[in-house]
Amino acid sequence: MSNVLLLTGAAEQPADILPSLSLLPHTVRVAEASLAAAVAGPVPDAILVDARRELVQAKRLLQGLRGQDRDVPVIVIVTEGGWAAITADWGADDLVLQTAGPGEVEARLRLALGRAAGVAPAGSGELRSGDLVINEITYSARMHGRAMDLTFKEFELLKFLVQHPGRVFTRAQLLQEVWGYDYFGGTRTVDVHVRRLRAKLGAENESLIGTVRNVGYRFVPAKGSGGREGRDGGGLSDSQADGTPDDGTEDGTPDDAAAAPATGGERGKVPGTSRKGAQPAHADR
User: Fold this and answer.
1) Cα(131)–Cα(276) distance, integer angstroms
2) How far apart are CA 86 and CA 91, in angstroms?
């Protein structure tokens, strides 16, 4: 079952706009056919745009949706007369006739959702794990289609863990891999950054970074996630490690006490110029 957002300018029920939709086990939320209404509220799994009558308005809405930093598939609902008006510049992922049967509507939704969550094409520079998308080219990350505000080291740490799903790393190993050999701070820096990452991932996703008590951390892929995930499938079994976060420092000291390292700043490679329009992770202070 998916959460579907239906954008329409008509004062009608979903069953009148796309009759077959009422026969499917999806949760449908109806909103005004405007960009403001589309981006308000929780991010849906798919968006249906009612283009049965106002083709010009629907086209503008779709183009506006494509300008948003969201990976949500958009399907246009059209009549037989409006079918020929839909072109590639609309930015729609698919279209469906108002009279389509439930089997066809379900198939189009399923395929659109599958493409959105599928494997990133080779050379795209993206790592995917479920709803988490990391772009190695623009130094940016998104969760559920929303941009995450990460510092450079937070981004590097998250990327490194995602590249090696299931593999357990000690704090010393993470410090060496992410901060480099010339970093002189203590390993508590890793705990602080993990705590910040979990907070930015949100309560529903903080368990993606699992704690292996008295050892370190590992990335725990979401169940059923696809995409270009990392190189290693190893790691401890569930009986040896869990994905639940804990206070996390080596000696039991709360994370808040694990302040910045005693000496030196966070040194390391500096990202190159980002593509225009990207939101690169900014440097740690």
Assistant:
1) 24
2) 9
Q: Which one-letter amino acid corresponds to residue 48?
A: L
Residue 231: pLDDT over 70: no
3-class secondary structure per residue, the chain: CCEEEEEECCCCCHHHHCHHHHHCCCEEEEEECCHHHHHCCCCCCEEEEECCCCHHHHHHHHHHHHCCCCCCCEEEEECCCCHHHCCHHHCCCEEEECCCCHHHHHHHHHHHHHHHHCCCCCCCCEEEECCEEEECCCCEEEECCEECCCEHHHHHHHHHHHHCCCCCEEHHHHHHHHHCCCCCCCCHHHHHHHHHHHHHHCCCCHHHEEEECCCEEEECCCCCCCCCCCCCCCCCCCCCCCCCCCCCCCCCCCHHHCCCCCCCCCCCCCCCCCCCCCCCCECCC
What residues are paired with 134 via a beta bridge?
127, 141
What domains are defined for the chain? 3-117 (3.40.50.2300), 126-257 (1.10.10.10)
Say which residues have a Cβ less than 8 Å from residue 201's Cβ, sequence separation at least 6.
Answer: 132, 143, 148, 208, 209
Distance of CA 202 to the CA centre of its chain: 12
Q: Considering only 165-169, 176-180, 237-241, which range has the smallest mean pLDDT?
A: 237-241
Distance between terminal CA atoms of the chain? 43
Q: Model confidence at 93, in pLDDT bands (50, 70, 90)?
A: confident
Do residues 57 and 76 touch, judged by C-beta distance below 8 A?
A: no
**Residue 113 or residue 142, greater confidence:** 142
Q: Say if residue 111's pLDDT is above 90.
A: no
Average pLDDT of the residues of the chain: 76
